[in-house]
Amino acid sequence: MSSYKPRIRVESTTVKRLLELVSLAGIIYIAFVLLRNWDNIPAEVPSHFGLDGRPDSYSAKSSLLLLPIVGLVVYLTLTVLDRYPYMFSYIWKITPENAYRQYQLAGTMLSAMKAEIVWIFNYIVLTMIKISKGNAEGLSPLFLPILFAVIFGPICIYLYVSYKER
């Protein structure tokens, strides 16, 4: 059985381009928020949350930079990976007939994951700032259920659509 996958260039869909803009907007937004508010953020901010969403550990406010930096690294890494869809592992056999659509679907899923990660990290950083200023007690009780839905929803949609397009 051959594992050859065609090396073809795939054009971005409108949805993918929109997701890329959403990701970039999230990166710019959190940088803006941190720059604008840095002097007003207390010296200690929450750095870890329990299952109930309440902070159970605090760190220096410089720890606020970690999530945006990780988000940017994830964004850049997934952007580079997206340029090589023929190197991905696919559930379905990739053929010359289905390669273009399968690559397109995988790229759109990567773009969705980038947007999700960037905005989830934004929410966490913004909540850390609010808690440190006394304007919130913790993450929303709905955070974990929404997190799972946001992460696994697009993956399930991708699997369903890619199955139909195989």
SSE arrangement, N to C: HEEHHH
What structural category do the secondary elements indicate? mainly alpha
Which segments are poorly predicted (pLDDT under 50) over 5 or more consecutive residues?
A: none
Tally of separate domains: 1
Percent of residues in helices: 55-70%
- Counting DSSP E segments of at least 2 residues, the number of strands comes to 2
| Cα distance spanning the termini | 17 Å
Q: How many helices in DSSP terms?
A: 4
Biggest β-sheet strands, sense, barrel: 2 strands, antiparallel
From the structure provided, what is the oligomeric state, counting identical versus distinct chains?
single chain
The radius of gyration is 19 Å
Q: Given the C-alpha coordinates, what overall shape results?
A: elongated
Strand content: 5-15%
Describe the structure in your own words.
It is elongated, with a radius of gyration of 19 Å. It has one domain (14-164). The protein contains four helices and two strands, in the order H-E-E-H-H-H. A hairpin with a 5-residue loop joins strand 1 (44-49) and strand 2. Strands 1-2 form a two-stranded antiparallel ribbon. Helix 1 (14-37) runs antiparallel to helix 2 and helix 1 (14-37) packs parallel to helix 3 (99-132). By secondary structure, it is mainly alpha-helical.
